[in-house]
Amino acid sequence: MKKRSSESSNDSYSDEESTKLYEIMSNDRYSDVILVVSDSIKFKSHRNLLGHSSKAFAKIFDNSNEIPVRISVKEFQAEIVKAALEFLYGKSDAIKGKEMEVFKFAEKYDIEELKYC
């Protein structure tokens, strides 16, 4: 995947690439991770993206043979987990208005590109 200048992680993908990533997220056909949040809402995701973005998730995946991997993120509200995932999949405005709570999620799961938004 081509990267533009790394002014900020929000701008690192072209609009076309961001749209493709977001389409991947929206289609759970090949998802292999389930994040279970505080209100029992489940978000499906992909270990390659989460593992690449987060040292904590990478460690979980390295120690699990389960597919899909189920991860409890019950200490966070669904809208925060969704915003973080959408951001990682290229929707740069997803965290607007939720920055502090998303930062806490990023801190817990060591997601660098979310810590500095």
Summarize the structure.
It comes from Panagrolaimus davidi. The protein is α+β, with helices and mostly antiparallel strands and 117 residues long.
Question: What would you say this structure looks like, in words?
Answer:
By secondary structure, the protein is an alpha+beta fold. The protein is 45% helix and 12% strand. It has helices spanning 15-26, 47-53, 55-62, 78-88, 99-109, 112-115, and strands at 33-37, 42-45, 69-73. It has a three-stranded mixed sheet with strand order 2-1-3. α2 packs across α3 (55-62) and α4 (78-88) packs across α5 (99-109). This is BTB domain-containing protein.
Helix-strand layout with pairing:
Blueprint: H1 15-26, E1 33-37, E2 42-45, H2 47-53, H3 55-62, E3 69-73, H4 78-88, H5 99-109, H6 112-115
Parallel strand pairs: 1-3
Antiparallel strand pairs: 1-2
Protein name: BTB domain-containing protein
Organism: Panagrolaimus davidi
Domain BTB: 31-97
